[in-house]
Specification:
alpha+beta, 7 strands
C-alpha cells in the first residue's frame, strides 16, 4: 500500500474525530460531563456521530481493500450464501475456494478478474422471475431482467468465454448453470446486487488473491489477457 494513501486515511480520521468533538462540545460542562438540561441534545448528537463513524469505517475498509491483497498462503475467511463461512488459503484454488466463489462470492471474483484484465462482466440469469413484487418492479428491470433472476456473475474473456472460479467455459456451459442465458452487467444490475439481502457484500480483498492462479490455469488463454495492475 502506498504510504501516501495511509496518510490520507489517517488525516481523514483526525478530521472526523475533531468534527465529532466539536459536535458534542456545546452539551458538556467544564469537567466534560453532560449538562443536566442537554441530555436529549447530547444523545441526538451521539446518534449522528455513530452513523458517521459506521460510514467512515465502511469507506475506509473499502479503500484498504482496493489498495491491497492478501499474501499467498494467508488464511482467509469469506462469507457465502445462507450465512456460510468458508476458510480459504490465499492463492490456493481448492474445494473450499471453488465453493466460496461459486456460492456467495462469484461477483467478487468477477470484479477482481475484471480489475486485473479489463474484461467485461456478465450475469447468468434464471429462466423465470419469482414474481416477488417486493423484489422486482418495473423500475428495477434492466435489459428485461428482474433482480431476482440474477444467479451468477462471470468475466467475459476476449474470445467470449465465461470465466469463473471453475475455469473458462463456452456461454451456457458453466457447471450448475448449463443452458442459462447471460446479460452484460450494468450499473443498474450492480445496484440491485448491492441492495439485495440475498447477495453477500463482495469480498474483493480476498478475491484478488485467486485471480492470478485462475488466469494461470487457463493455459489456452495465457498471453491473451492484458494486466491493468
Amino acid at each position: 500500500m502506498p504510504i501516501s494513501s495511509l496518510h490520507t486515511l489517517l488525516r481523514a480520521y483526525a478530521d472526523l474525530d475533531t468534527q465529532h468533538r466539536y459536535r458534542i462540545a456545546p452539551f458538556l460542562d467544564a469537567d466534560g460531563q453532560v449538562q443536566e438540561d442537554e441530555e436529549d441534545a447530547y444523545e441526538e448528537a451521539l446518534d449522528e456521530i455513530k452513523d458517521q463513524a459506521v460510514e467512515f469505517l465502511r469507506a475506509t475498509m473499502a479503500t484498504l481493500a482496493e489498495l491491497s491483497e492478501p499474501p499467498e498462503g494467508e488464511p482467509l475467511t469469506v462469507h457465502g450464501t445462507w450465512r456460510r463461512r468458508f476458510s480459504l488459503t490465499a492463492g490456493v484454488i481448492d474445494d473450499a475456494a471453488l465453493t466460496a466463489f461459486s456460492e456467495g462470492q462469484c461477483h467478487a471474483l468477477a470484479l477482481a478478474v475484471a480489475e486485473r484484465t479489463g474484461w467485461p462482466l456478465a450475469a447468468i440469469v434464471s429462466d423465470e422471475c419469482c414474481l416477488d413484487l417486493d423484489c422486482c418492479t418495473l423500475e428495477s428491470v434492466d435489459q428485461g431482467v428482474c433482480p431476482c433472476r440474477l444467479e451468477h456473475v462471470v468475466a467475459v474473456a476476449p474470445d467470449g468465454s465465461h470465466v469463473d472460479i471453475t475455469g473458462a467455459h463456452a456461454p451456457g456451459t458453466i457447471p450448475d448453470y448449463e443452458g442459462r442465458d447471460s446479460v452484460a452487467m450494468t450499473d443498474a444490475l450492480w445496484d440491485c446486487i448491492r441492495r439485495s439481502p440475498d447477495w453477500r457484500p463482495a469480498d474483493l480483498h480476498a478475491a484478488r488473491a485467486f485471480v492470478q492462479p485462475l488466469l494461470d490455469s487457463l493455459g489456452w488463454l495465457r498471453g491473451r489477457y492484458t494486466l491493468t495492475a
